[in-house]
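User: quick one, sequence for these tokens?
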């Protein structure tokens, strides 16, 4: 499929590589939640109103009995700390943002202009006016809920910003956003998971969207392999792109004559046309994290091993 930068076709990649890019961001979200769980497992009970309780209680044993990892070490901080709520809302917001990014790309890829994906009828709706429409409601709503989660986080941070030390009644505003964020995620996640599983990939449409201009970087690499400094190679590859675009029929670079190439640089030889094979371009990106078939298989093996 085409890979994009600035929403413009850039270089060919494997579709699997694109899907996996979303896996890694969601994996970080899971890790943040696990990390948060350890950090917020602090028992405030025994802090009193602000100065601690006057009774001889074993707070450590109390924490163990209630399933907490530790006890708060300062009674003032114990009653006024809402970091746990704010940090949880940040984690929820990041999940929403990552899902929104994925949803936006699904919305784009299901349009007639792209046509890479087709949604199942079970996870899309028709228009109330236009019979031909298949609207990606699930993904649009997911994108919208990211704004809701962001608003909940900002709202709590604004509440905490101006408070003096110890307890203030403003702090009761911590609960509603935490519960609302949780309800939002528990609503979104199962639905978007089902919607993603139901997508049909339009394989030929994706492949046909790749044109020779997307191998311009490979053309520059071709020159570098023959001793041309990359800065100069970049310039020469750009000249080839312009020459192909300025031709009367706006031909692709793979259709330019060898004479036309050698008029730009004598370094070009007859094997230059091998550059315009998308799979060869993909297979060259074989470093860790690259889009080659083996690199993508390695990603999947690493994921399954974790």
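Assistant:
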């Amino acid at each position: 499929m085409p890979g994009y930068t600035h929403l413009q076709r850039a270089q060919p990649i494997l579709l699997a590589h694109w899907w996996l890019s979303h896996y890694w961001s969601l994996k970080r979200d899971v890790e943040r939640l696990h990390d948060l769980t350890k950090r917020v497992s602090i028992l405030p009970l025994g802090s009193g109103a602000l100065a601690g309780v006057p009774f001889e209680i074993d707070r450590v044993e109390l924490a163990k009995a209630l399933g907490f990892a530790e006890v708060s070490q300062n009674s003032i901080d114990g009653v006024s700390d809402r970091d746990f709520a704010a940090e949880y809302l940040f984690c929820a917001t990041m999940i929403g943002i990552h899902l929104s990014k994925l949803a936006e790309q699904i919305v784009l890829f299901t349009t007639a202009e792209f046509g890479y994906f087709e949604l199942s009828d079970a996870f899309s709706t028709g228009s109330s006016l236009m019979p031909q429409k298949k609207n990606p409601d699930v993904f649009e709503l997911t994108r919208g809920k990211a704004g809701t989660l962001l608003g909940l986080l900002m709202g709590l941070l604004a509440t905490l910003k101006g408070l003096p030390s110890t307890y203030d009644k403003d702090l009761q505003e911590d609960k509603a956003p935490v519960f609302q964020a949780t309800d939002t995620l528990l609503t979104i996640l199962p639905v978007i998971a089902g919607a993603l599983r139901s997508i049909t990939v339009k394989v030929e449409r994706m492949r046909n969207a790749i044109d020779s201009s997307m191998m311009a970087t490979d053309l520059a690499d071709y020159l570098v392999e023959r001793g041309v400094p990359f800065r100069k190679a970049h310039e020469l590859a750009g000249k080839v792109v312009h020459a192909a675009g300025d031709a009367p029929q706006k031909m692709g670079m793979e259709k330019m004559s060898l004479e036309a190439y050698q008029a730009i640089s004598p370094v070009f030889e007859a094997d230059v046309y091998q550059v315009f094979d998308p799979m060869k371009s993909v297979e060259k990106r074989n470093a860790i994290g690259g889009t080659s078939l083996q690199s993508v298989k390695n990603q999947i093996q690493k994921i399954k091993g974790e």
